[in-house]
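ugh ok so i messed up the first submission bc i forgot one of the chains. this is the corrected input, ALL of the components this time, i swear. 684 residues overall. if the numbers dont match what u have on ur side tell me asap before i send this to the collaborators (the ones from the other lab, u know who)
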Amino acid sequence: MGRRVLITGVSGYWGTELARRLERSGEFEYIGGLDVRPPGADLERTEFIRADIRNPLISKLIPQTGVDTVVHSDILLAPEPGKSVKQLHDINVIGSLQLLAACEKTSTVRTIVVRGSAAIYGAEPNAPSFFTESMARRFPLRTRFQRDIGELENYFETFSRRFPEVTVTMLRYQPSLGPRIDSPLTRYLRSPAVPVQLGFDPLLQFIHADDAVAALEATLLRPLPGAVNVAGEGSVSLSKLLRMAGKLPLPVLPPLFAPTLRAGRRFGLAEMPPETVPWLRYGLTVDCRRLIEEVGYRPRPTLETVRDFIEKVRSHRVLPGVGGMNGSAEDSERPEPRDEKAETR
Amino acid sequence: MTQAPGQPPRRRFDRGGPLGADPTEGNGNRPAAITQLQFVRNLGRALESGLELPDAVERAALTLPRSARRLADAAAHRLRGENYEDEWGFDEDFVELVYAFFEFMYERWWRVEATGVENVPAHGRAMLVANHAGVLPWDATMMRVAILKQHPLPRYPRFMVLDWAFRLPWVSSFMRRVGGVVASPFNAMRLLEQDHLVMVFPEGVKGAGKPFSERYRLQRLGRGGFVEVALRTSSPIVPVAVVGSEEIYPKIGDSKLLARLIGSPYFPITPTFPALGLLGTVPLPSKWRIEFCPPIDVSGYGPEAAEDRSLVFELTELVRDTIQEKLYENLVKRGSAFI
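and heres the new structure output, hopefully the right one now
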């Protein structure tokens, strides 16, 4: 018996890649994709449903598809320049609420997988070095984005309590790295001189862009109730990362770091969301045993991910443009701000 | 348990330390100053010829004596980002770079005398529990040097550092590189599950911040959290008594106002600090003794025993009494504090 799946945000990098993988796997007899614009790459048998996730209309559309699995990938993990915090909040929080309302009406739904963020743990100096899934909310949610993610997790938790027959998996992603990913983080790492905070050298953790999508697929095949951290094992210090990449670190006094990032935009540096400041001071690493042992997917270790990213970016260096993503689907068409999919915290 | 294999590939330490204190080694009797000058000159030339910094360092080091060349190679390695770091950010090359300094502190500055080092298990997990004093974790560093120098099978211990240190610039990254982690039971558990040697200082802030007049009077060992962790992971507990660390920063006062200003748990005032500024952070050259006691095996109780309050208190008291007794014993053996 084939399963029926719906992917929200199918036109983003993650959504498209996942749809492509699922088309190939043959496990799913029906793949529906929800987004406001058609996917850039051609997908063969994904049925595209044009709808805005913030619109209550989806409560009418989704039940008609008769899906048993919903992948919520229409979550923006980073504020983009030119997009207000309010828009981000709308898509992440209001969108999730509408989706859950639609799932309530769809009696066939058994599995929901959410592409969330590890930012919910918070980068704190007194944090345990490796957050396990049960350690969320040990620290106050300090930024708007963290609060949004916290709220979103709340909604899904409440939903799974109300509908115990539905398995809700909350994937908590660490930032992903890949040559085709355009996020504030990748732009930051691509800038010629990288501002760092004087005297701080955080331990960071990443997930390979391919593994990030593969982990999503693996979770679909073996859904688990609750949260699962998604990250490459191990960690890398920022200083080591920059030296590996041959980048010039630009030490800035910590209090001046945020203003520098803001000012640096004029000189081609990346705009960074506010949670990057503590993140690049104290770092954030998570425990990934649940993903490996229970979901059964082992992503590339962080160090290997970084090495791969640096190599790929180096070989692409001939191509122009600071944030140039070398003709990825994301870059080719950006009609409305609503469509930009960024892939990091 | 399934995480990366516990022990990093261990590099053997020469007993002489990475700098090779032996001046007769290599191209021998040439005065050190000339060799160093030549190194700097070569470095400049190499850079002029268009080499990148890491390569230039490697090139210039060719004329140095062998021991110093190793150091330069390690530096070049670092500059390329090829240094080995484990998931905790422990950086073996970095430790080797600073080891000579620690060794100097161990041998010349504090003239540490360590006994019972063989009580530290040569492999597998173990928890070293020690008294804590001095504002900076010098005691942890010296215990580490003792193990590296005198243990038949040296290994790198990790140590728990008060989280406040991780708010400080430079201190935080230094601590991390030499094997410090945020003092948290979760970290201790994970390290022990990876079969590391973990040093804990359950006295915590109360120990580090106690006034000079209360030196060597062991404070309450927290709530016995370290015993719970040891029980849960079936790790043997090795009590350690460190004598000497409590005189290096004789705290005669405490400024609540300054502490609140910089957000620290306390602000020590010693005869030299903050009067002499940074110079005041130079620790006094007291004489040290470190005694490692025989390990207490708790594996017989089983992991569930961690919930047993009375057992936890009992074991905590046992450890506390052992350390306190050894502290007094070694104080007597040491005699005068500074000479």
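quick check: The radius of gyration of chain A is 19 Å. that seems consistent at least. The CA atoms of residues 133 and 301 of chain A lie 19 Å apart.
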